[in-house]
Amino acid sequence: MPEGNTSPASCSGRMHESILSTVGNTPLVRLPRLETTHGLQAHLALKLEFFNPLGSVKDRIGLAMIEAAEREGLIEPGRSILVEPTSGNTGIALGFVAAAKGYRLIVTMPDGASIERRKMLRLLGVEVELTPAREGMSGAISRAEAIIRSTPHAWMPRQFDNIANPAVHETQTAEEIWRDTGGKVDAVVAGIGTGGTLTGIARALKPRLPNLQIVGVEPAESAVLSGDDPGPHDIQGIGAGFRPSILELDRIDILKRVTERESFAAARLCARSEGLPIGISSGAVLHAMMELAADPCMKGKIIVGIAASFAERYLSTDLFAGL
């Protein structure tokens, strides 16, 4: 069994030098009531990535991409301007790192992103440029590219292409799952946005666990990776509408399509049954986990899902409609 996680947050019982050293080491939590009430064959556990300091799995890559660029001499505080297209959480992750290190950051994002995300970005001092929601992430990327071309000393992290993205999940997230399950995990389920989370986890764990199932989740309304055309959807953070370059699709064993309605329903169920208010894409992940866990072939096995963000980031969305 490998040594424990070596992420910056691995030390405890001390005063942290900055917010940056609190990234990582998020808890893995069982869902016993859902298992019982739904008669599931497998055991479910969610890795609660909203325990990262700014509340999402993207905190890991926000720090990793900026620090990798600093090591390579591509950027430096006080001179470089960071520009990134994002549906929200990556922008927030880059925003807190940029603020802590002294960078100016501009993000472009579809105007369908939740108001909570926009306000958090602005609170962090990030400059936000909105693009039409109907253009999806492609529109945000085009606008960011235009800003890069016209802005001296600008640099784009390019979360969909940056190798530091899957690398941090390979060296940290995967090792935390291995450690916290004692090396006994049978399936890992995550939504596919950039694809970095699943790619990194699969790289690290599949060589040790040949029978491990890696399950990717995408919106049924825009199931591009399954061969459909891109389309608008409300599962923020996944389903970018194209295949990211860092996504190693051959490492994914199963692609599951989940509808917006199924995502909302599972997220609400998790809050009411387990006391875990998860976000919309996490609801999609949970729905896929429960489908997988209902299979008699999965009896007694352990399914780990990545809960990318917290419900409170979606107060203005349909997740809270009628409440």
UniProtKB/TrEMBL annotation:
Keywords associated with the record: Pyridoxal phosphate, Transferase
Keyword Nucleotidyltransferase: no
Entry's EC annotation: 2.5.1.47
One function term, GO molecular function aspect: cysteine synthase activity
Pfam family, one: PALP
Needed co-factor(s): pyridoxal 5'-phosphate
PANTHER family: CYSTATHIONINE BETA-SYNTHASE
Protein name: cysteine synthase
Domain of life assignment: Bacteria
Substrates-to-products reaction catalysed: O-acetyl-L-serine + hydrogen sulfide = L-cysteine + acetate
Coiled-coil regions listed: none
NCBIfam families xref list: cysK, cysKM
UniProt domain Tryptophan synthase beta chain-like PALP: residue ranges: 21-303
Species, as recorded: Teichococcus globiformis
SUPFAM superfamilies cross-referenced by the UniProt entry: Tryptophan synthase beta subunit-like PLP-dependent enzymes (SSF53686)
InterPro entries (UniProt xref): Cys_synth (IPR005856), Cys_Synth/Cystath_Beta-Synth (IPR050214), CysK (IPR005859), TrpB-like_PALP (IPR001926), TrpB-like_PALP_sf (IPR036052)
